[in-house]
## 1
Amino acid sequence: MTKRKPIRVVVLGGGTAGWMSAASVAKLLPGIASVELVESEDIGIVGVGEATLPHIRSFVERLGINEAAFMKATHATYKLGIDFRDFGKIGESYIHPFGSFGEEVAGVPFHHYWLQLQQQGLADDIGTYSMGVMAALGDKFRPPAGDASLGSTYGYAYQFDATLFGPFMRDFATGLGVTRTEGRVTDVKRSGTSGDVETLVLEDGREVHGDLFIDCSGFRSLMLGGALDMEWEDWAHWLPCDRAAAMPCKHVTDEIEPYTRATAMPAGWRWRIPLQHRVGNGYVYASEFLSDDEACAAIKEAAEGEQLADPRVLRFKAGRRKASWSHNVIGVGLSSGFLEPLESTSIYLAQMAITYLLELFPLDGTINPRDRDEFNRLVDMEYDRVRDFLILHYHATTRDDSPFWDHVRTMEVPDSLKSKMELWRDTGRIEKYSEGLFYDASWIAVYVGQGVLPQNHDPRAALPDPQGIKRALGNLQGAIKQEVAAMPGHREFLLSHTGRLADVI
């Protein structure tokens, strides 16, 4: 039997999405595909400090990457959730944890019991019934337990320096046999019959040939948006923030918070991402309501700690391509779509596309149109659901203190989000789905945290004695406090896991 030649996979663009794609194909499809990545050192990457979601852990584990080595190389910290401030009302805050609130009892989700007591003034803040929230507020961390105990009811992600993550993945990928080609692409040649991309032409005249192309060229989207002219679906009318002023600072205390902070601002919001060696800060804003100079001045005034560099302005637009896989080109990362970093979804969306590509990969070299359609369906579904969740943070507010917040509070939202909000307000239920991102606890965190409480809830929660439920919830709070008290501090755990923390660079 003649051995089949490996499918030639060409990745255009380095950075996070490109090297994640190249490493994944090389590691998980050995012998099936050869991988060549084309990038130019002259083209920078959009990397200001990345906060991630727990799904990144499965990516690290699946590729066989040592967590401690990865964290040391990227100056990473642990992340238990996101602290949202001033979104529902000025002066109010809540944490969206990577974990649950309480436990289901007799088939009734915990939050229905909490709502029953809350109506009677017998419940504390819902965050006090979450291990993830209380550990974050205490600046504590340890990996969740591997059993069904209370210590297993939370998850974690990473916060790392994106300018270091790309090179780390590059070294890992080239160690797997990925070929790196330096050069700027000046032309994309397509087949005259099928329309497939066949060749990338570099500035010096060299040509890179392939069978399957992964476009990780960022917002330029040279293949998917350029050569194939795939239409962009603009979501600026729902997500008007289109710029960010980013600026690093020194830590102001010895402790390192195990969470990302998002604080609402007059024309958007600002992030605070604590890494080992510094703190990333940025103001995500809508240029319709704020100038670049005003944004830079605002982040300089609001950021904590000594400034390490001047703010730099990044431009972006919210939306996605009408299709992320066209002909033999798959868009991953910014070339496929972009949703602002309010819930740290950028790396997840790239990882998600890579995962679906591996599942639907043309193992015999022939692309099945049904597989391509399924890929596009899954990717579109993910983007649409994340979009709705992000819009919720803006729309579910009572703020009327600036033109920006007036706009997002009163704007028409997608029908898909409108139906989710109506279901919650009428019944206290969260729309169920088996695929995608952000399940019940995530939506509950934002709804309750921003003051959107339902008119009704599961009537079965009213059957037990309210005082009995209150005692049970009090016992849960006590158990959580005991568990959190036994945890090491975040900085202490980082030192024990990664060794000496990175210095300011």
## 2
Amino acid sequence: MDAVIDLLNEIFWGYVLVYGLLAVGIYFTIRLAFIQIVHFPEMFRSVLGAKVADKSGITPFQALCTSLASRVGTGNIAGVAVALYLGGPGAIFWMWMVAAVGMATAFSESTLAQVYKIRDGEGRYRGGPAFYIAKGLNAPWAGAIFSVCLILSFGLIFNAVQANSIADAMEGAFGLPKLATGVVVAALAAVIIFGGIQTIARSAEIIVPFMALGYVLVALYVLIINIVDVPGMLLLIVRSAFGLEEAVGGVTGGMAAAMMNGVRRGLFSNEAGMGSAPNIAAVATPDPHHPVSQGFVQALGVFIDTIVICTATALLILLSETLVPGSGLTGTQLTQEAVSAHIGGAGHYFIAVAIFFFAFTSIIGNYAYAENAMTFLGMGSRTGLLILRLAVLLMVVWGAYESVATVFNAADASMGLMATINLIAILLLSGLVVRLARHFIAQRKAGLHPIFLAGDMPELAGRIDADIWRQR
């Protein structure tokens, strides 16, 4: 099985997705006329608009925080360090570029998730790639494959990996036994996930801003005390991205290594095009009440994940001068050494706590995605969700204690298939994304508060829930 899984991963992550995700991001950026840049302020307007009183969904801010709960994980701490170690400072520039075009992809898939969302048996919004694949492309079989892959990778195995990261960090910093850590994390997760998506959204709304702001504030402190070195460091990142620094500063890797490692780590971190974040985007009640509004919200999520938080980690490392090519110091350990160089011995504890929050929120965010997939498969009953929740908690305890390398490779293959299906779907539905974007922008330019009504696009009759998209 290892040989088969490794072959699948080489195909998906060596060729199909690295180039496919990048190409799709560029395609949507051009097709949508650089919407993520031209209409950047709209992202904040869509998040910070009036909270909507709608018991069927969650607020745009809660949707942003829940998607960030999943996006912002150990990759923002360890993944950035690996990109720097293997690709040099220039890798960060390519992470920025990936995020810039990935914002257009995230916009597109979340807009589609909104327009094709439904109400479940209890009146709550549900949706995501499985729904727009089934309804928009008339391919429920592909939606079912997508859902199974999502549950296996995000719902179960990735949560074991996140628990493993927490257990390693707690053992290294505080000497806590891994099994005990796993049980505590599972108990805390149970309190939240047994409350369903509404409770997850409310928890993310509190925890995510706290953890992200705390991490960024430490980075800002480091920037302030090293302010004279910051311009030179930013110049180093840009010059290294094009191989211009190698001859001068002796940085290894060159442009090819910087680009490949930056692109890969950027794609893994922000998840744009993977088909994960649209599952929570569909649950939101957008304000303005238009599918495009939630597209802007999730594009902002990519910006915060990569441009803000990953850049914070990169600058913490680069300004500490702990990055030494060939030293073997990489991953979480490199970030810990970097922070310790700035704030003393407390740096190890700070990173351990940061990993706890980053990984724990990923667990509850990933579960929220899996719950939506269960609904699509017709297994969203109380019994079905109880089985899923217990399985997630068992994986958390198991993942904290056991090595998860082989299972993690299997999850990569599962996610690779899931992302490939999603990319094909959003490309086939790209015409609808463009029409919805133009519909929204035209109303903004006319000085109106944008709203989408089912009757605005008669061609969608029978494919979308007209009751959701009626005058409110």
## 3
Amino acid sequence: MQFTVGKGRVSLNVRDQASLMAIIEDRLRLGQGFALATMNVDHLEKLQFDKAFRAAYAAHDLVVADGNPVVWLARLAGHQFSLVPGSDLVKPLCALAARLDKPIAIIGGSQEGCEEAGRRLTAEHPGLRVALVAAPGFPFDPEGPEADVLIRRLAGSGVALCLLALGAPRQEIFAARASRHCHGMGFASVGAGIDFIVGRQKRAPRVMRAAKLEWLWRAALSPKRLGMRYVKGALILPAHAVRAIAQRSRQG
């Protein structure tokens, strides 16, 4: 499934969580690197105007639907994709890394938060090894000198899987850069997943998630930060819907 964004296109290419975890398990077993992006409407909005973000997305070989509108747009185009929130992938990825004895790194916005996440995850997943924890300064430049240092640290760490919780587009741009230098390492952008683990952000109640209203919960908790983001996202949906229907017509 392809989405037109600005002067380029980005592809959604992994249909569900089971398929994703099977692919990642094979990659980790074989020592093959990957970069995983979790597409949502905020990404689609940013991708329209951010050339570096588009280039980073093009370098990601695994892209899942992290947002119900993305799932619905794919279905309008005649493709069956399931919702795979990046924040829901932290624990399954850690369980897999523990089972395969593959060390991980956690990189996020707070050193304290990342360290606490490491402690909680290792307690929950016996055998999990957290080989590196880092929290770049804010605002983090994924193409700057601090990123260069972090890439060198990762390359020498023995890490097989790096969880990135730096926010879009920083985490995706960093993943695209780092994957070129850290051969055999997997990078997964998990967004707020680390904050959910340590309780810095509250996940929407299950009933709201089932009703596809997690966006409303998050907007209510952080109206200044997320309100305009959701408005911008809503404004781009009609054009994407028209293009999705056109895709389906061409295929039919």
